[in-house]
Structure formats: structure tokens, C-alpha cells
Amino acid sequence: MGPTKVMLNLSLPRALDFIKANQNPDGGWGYRPGGDSLVEPTGLCALALSSGRDKTADGRGLDFLKACLKDSGAVGIHPKDPEGNWMAYAALLAFHAFGAASEERRLRDWILSFEDAAGLFSPTDIKAIATAYRFDASIRGWPWTANTSGWVEPTALFIIALSRAGVPATEKRIKSGVDLILDRKVPSGGWNFGNPYSKSYELDASVMSTALALAALGAAGVPESRPAVGEGIRFLTRSLAGDTSTASLAWVLLALNCYPAGAALAPKVSARLAGLQAADGSFRQNLFETALAYLVLSEAAIFVRAPGKGR
Amino acid sequence: MTKKPMTRREVIRVLGTSVLSALPATALAGARQQLVKGTASGPLLQVALVPCPDYGPENLATAIRAGWRSSRPPDVRGKRVVIKPNIADFSAERPIHTDPRLVESLILQLKKLEAREIILAEGPPHNRDTEWLFRKSGFEALANRQSVPLVDLNYDDISPVKCVNPRATLLKELYLPRTILSADVIISVAKMKTHRHAGITLSLKNMFGILPGMKYGWPKNILHWNGIPLSICEINGTLKTHFSIIDGVVGMEGYGPLLGTARKAGVLVMGDNALAVDATAARVMGIDPARVEYLAMAHKIKLGSLRREDIAVAGEKIEKVRADFVLDPEYSFLRAPKG
Q: pTM of the entire structure?
């Protein structure tokens, strides 16, 4: 039986207490208490506090994120990172939620210009990759870090954040990112980090990659009628019978809420995720996971505009 | 843009992974960490090759003790020791990761030797779901049983370290986890496996796992763009592994490191020089280490030696335990002649 609204309401505020108690003096958060402040946990912790209406702590978090914004508009993992990278997705979500319009626009433009290595491959390269890995390396997605290949998860994270920031699904990078995700689907259903095959071997899908891919497709308005979506939901359904991590459960909940076929499963996943909260309010003493779990359990719409649910 | 097409192997390495790079002998002229000076008299490196028929606790303890005695182990008393296993991924059917029972036996040995602190640390390369991976592979339970921390290096605090290679391009600075940088002793406990992009993966290649995913991604693709051999040499030239243990009780042959099949070699290979340990393990696998590009490069830049005459092997004779691992056809050229 799923947790009642009352149960969730009683326990969830303790997540915010844990987050508030572990904010660093520089305004940011690390993955673990006392760890260096980093963009991904800071973005999500600030969002969580914001949704909990704490305007002091979340404002300091926003200041930390603003300090990470470079002249180029890029955001890396922390203020001293010389390059932009995948963590920029969390900063974009926060800038949008906080109404930091100037920072949001600069970062959004940088993300839209943040290229993977697709343009570096010649037609011969692309053919060789298609033979060995059975995907189309000419499709542009997003990399984890500059000048490297595009992969499913960073592509998904950027699609989620850009969509939430109001970039339409018709924008060419989002369209291409959706194409990359669809192209990298594992034939038996779901996604992994981004290689459906290695030579003649089909590689296994993973829960986290599949959940992120589905959430991105949902954010971009790809309908449930697309076979890849249905297969992905069925993969998640099968996988939920087994061991699943905290972060994966949270991303699964987000993904399921994007599609009617998944929404029926959502209450059970909510209950399972809520049951992982520790007495100190945290999820695994991990600030990113605590914020993520809080957000998806309380208001997933902060991430994704689910079809038919409005913004 | 105009570009020269890559060879098929180059393209394949970049994607799953890499571009081959030729590293000049002087490229790591400043390699102070792992550099081994040659001498004119006799073998300068020592490696223990000990039989271990299975993962039973008594056999493992006996093998670890024997290997420790007959190699040149680090002094761990009062030290902070970080153990780096290989937990590349998990499969219930295939032996992808270092067996936790071996690591447990090592922990017990380190406790006996009065190590001050023991930490397990790994940054898995593909699968970002480390909580799941640590649990499924048995390392979470091991850490709890032995009351040692289990650190996900992919999300550890990091500090930049200047790469030892003055000609480094993509890896001018290596962002390394502070768990690793603050260790007094680093012990690499790798799995004996074939590798679809590197030929084989042993102790030197295992150190890819210390680079944090949050900075380098999943897979750590920039290491592939940099060239796998060069990346291995730059990482191991910059950071010393104090002791290496290869889990060859059951390794992986064929299309490793994830999709191959189990192959029993029934040995542990141990020593203080990772290159010498890897070269010896390669010989056990029926592979000529000089034909493995990254081992040849590591030898060239003096991270140790792969030459038989430079390595004193204590314990079993290599020929006695040699178990020719099946090679992917692309790597059939690695096979060492018999005799």
C-alpha cells in the first residue's frame, strides 16, 4: 500500500531539515555532508528548499550557482572548474525556478551550443561505428564533458532542463537529442549508458539510464504510442521487481509520471522511495539523493512538464 | 570540417572508447612516481605468483600470506590504506568484478599488519548507479562486515594534479579524488581479464577507475579520446600504486571486460611494481606483454619493466600455471608462443 498524503507530508519536511543543516558556508552543497560544494547537489538542494519556501538558504544556493557561471555562459562542476559540463543541467533548472532570467538565458544559450563529438566523425567513421555498435554516430546529443561522444544520460538531463526552461521540443538540438535517445535504445527494451550493442552482443539496459531517457522523452512530448516508450516502461516494470537504488527509484518515479501507462505504477514506487528515508530525514546521507527524492515525491513538475499535466 | 578518417579500430575505441597515440620515450621524463631505475646485475623487480584454487577463505588467506611474504609489500603499519578493486559492472553470469572474498582476505591481512585505516574505493566506469553496483557485487556487504568505508570515487571531493607528461594535451591536469590523494598506501586489486579495447585489463588499466565520473563522465570517454595506452601511462605515471594484486582465481576470457566468459587460472599475482605484475599476469594468460600496446608504452617510459629477465617470479613457475585465455580475434596477435 502506498504512503498516504499525510504520511508523506509528515516525513518529507525532515528532508529539508537535513538539507538545511548541511549547507556549506559558501552557500552550496556537496554530495555528502561536509563535501565540497558542487553544481548538481546545489541545484537540486536549492530547488528543494525553494519548493519548501525557505528563501534564505535557497538564495545562498542560487548565489553559489551564479558564481559558477562563466563569461561564456558555461557552468562546470564548481566555480573553479575551467570548463562547462553536464552538471549545468541542474543550474539551468535552478535559474529557471528562481527567475534568474539573465543567468538562465546565458546558460541556456551555452547548453544549446555545447557540442558532442558527432561533428568530428567522418562518413567512414560513422559507418564503422554503425557496424560495431549499431547506432548512428552522426546524431548530435550531449556529452558529459566537452569534445567527447554524446551519451544517453547527459542528453536526457539537458532535454529535461531545457524543456523545463521553456525551450520548445521543436528546437533542433532537442529534436536531435530525442533522435539520439531513440536511436540508442536497447533492442529488448530500455536504455543503458549509450551502447545498445558491442559487436554482436546486445548490452543490458539499466534502470537509471532508462528512467532518465523516458523522462526526457516525456518532457519533449514523445507520445506513449512510440514503441520505444512502451518498451522502456515495460523494462522498468520488470526491473522494479528486483533491487533498485534510491536515485534510480527517484528517476523512475519522474519517468512514470510522464506517461499514463507509467502513472498507474507511480504510487507503489512513491511508497517504496518514501520508505527509504532515514530517521535523520536524509536518503542515504546523500544530499543530492535527498533533494531529488524530495522533489519527485513532492512536486515532480519542477523537473518535467508531464503531458496533459501542465507546467 | 575536413578530417582524416580514423581506422576502424580507432573509431571503435573512441566510442566505447579511442584514438591511438604514440608516446615518445621521453614523454614522461618527469615520471617520478612509478619510475624504476635499471641495474646491471640481476632482476630488479619481484613478483609473487601463488596458486589459489578457489575463493575459500582458507585458500585465500594462505595465498595472500604467501604472496605478501614473497614479494616486496609496502609497510602498512599505522598507515591509511586504500584498496582499489575493479567493479566495472555486475553480472550474475559473468565474473566482471574483483571477487569480494579476495578483498576481504586482504583486509584481514592488513588488519593483522596493523594498518591504521582501510578504505575501499572505486569509481565504476559505465554504470552510474553505484549504490546498486556496490550492493549487487557484494562490496557493500563486505564493507559492512569489515567496518570499512566504501567510497564512490565518481562523486568524491577532487583536487587537480598536474599530469606528469609535459606533453599532455587532453589530460594536462588530472582531477583526482582526495580519498586517493590522501592515501599512504594504494593497493590495486584487479581482475584478470581480456579487454575489447586494450587487449587485457590488469592492474595498470584498473586505475582508470580512480578518475571521477562527475568530471570525466560515464564511460570516462575523454580517456578514450586521449588514447587508452597514453591515458593508462599518464595516470600511472602521475600516481603510484604501491602494491598490485591480480585476481586470477577466476578471470575472464574472450570478449572482456564485460561480455567474456569465466576462465579459471587459479592464481594470484602480486607485487610492488604494477607493470611487472601485469606482465607476469599477461604471461599466465598466454599473452606476450610486449605486444600489448599500453604495457609496451609503460615499459618504454620506465614505469617498470615487462622483460622476463628483469622480473624475479617467486612461487609457481609461469609455464606451470599458464592458461591460454581465449582472445577476441581482433587481438589474436597478442598470443605468446609456447615454450
A: 0.92
